[in-house]
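Morning!

This is the sequence you dropped in the shared folder:
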Amino acid sequence: MKPEHPEQSISAPGKVEPGKIQPEKLEPEKLEPEKTADGSYTFFSSQFNEAFHSRQGARLEAEQKFVGPAQLAKLAAGTTVCLIDVCYGLGYNTAAALDT
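The structure's back. Tokens below.
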């Protein structure tokens, strides 16, 4: 199947082909560690002017937005709970879940 607009197809990174959109070159971002109000740490992105977690606390955020809504304490009462962590963050959700 041919692209509808071949002039707008994307070429492979590092390969320049006339008439094709070149993917944006990505540079590694410098992230600054920042202590939050509950004593836990998050990272701050100057590129996006945003922290990974609430400034009130990364740990508090994990408890309020993950452990509480998932009702992990209720689920864990008297049974085994399996939790999969895809390692896509700083690990606060997993740490809070294990402490529940």
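Headline: Residues 28-98 form one domain.

More detail when I'm at my desk.
O.
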